[in-house]
Amino acid sequence: MSGFDMSQYLGIFLDETEEQLQQLDEAVVLLEQDPDNRELLNKIFRIAHTLKGSSASMGFEKMATLTHRMESVLDALRRGELRVTSGTIDLLLACLDKLRELKAQLASGHEGEVDTSDLVGRLEEMMAGERGGDDGSPSPAFEPLRLDDVEENVVRAAEIRGYRAYEIRVELEADCRMKGARAFLVFNNLKDLGEVVKSEPHTQELEAEKFGNTFRLVFLSKEDADTVANVIKSISEIKDVTVRPLSLEEGVAQVEERREAAAGAIPLPEGGEAEPGIQRSPERRVTQTVRVDVQRLESLMNLVGELVIDRTRLAEVGNNLKVRLGNEELVEMLEEISLHIGRITSDLQEEIMKARMFPIDQVFNRFPRMVRDLAQKAGKEINFIVEGRETELDRTVIEEIGDPLIHLLRNAIDHGIEEPEERVRLGKPRYGTVVLKAFHQENQIVIIVEDDGRGMDAEQLKRRAVEKGLLSPEGAARLTKREALDLIFLPGFSTSDRITDVSGRGVGMDIVRAHLEKINGTIDIQTTPGKGTRFTIKLPLTLAINRSLLVTLGDRVYAFPLANVVEIIEVEPSQVRRVQNREVTVVRGQVLPLVHLAAALGLKGERAVPGDKAAVVIVGLAEKRVGFIVDSLIGEQEIVIKSLGNYIGKIPGIAGATIMGDGRVALILDIHSLIEHLGTAGERQLAS
Amino acid sequence: MEQLVVFQLAGETYGVDIAHVHEIIRLQPITEVPRTPDFVEGVINLRGRIIPVIDLHKRFGLPAAEAGNSTRIMVVDVKGITVGMIVDAVSEVVRLPEENIEPPPPIIQGVDVAYLRGVGKWGDKLIILLDLERVLRESEHEQLKEQVAAGVAET
Question: pTM, whole model, 2 decimals?
Answer without folding.
Answer: 0.47
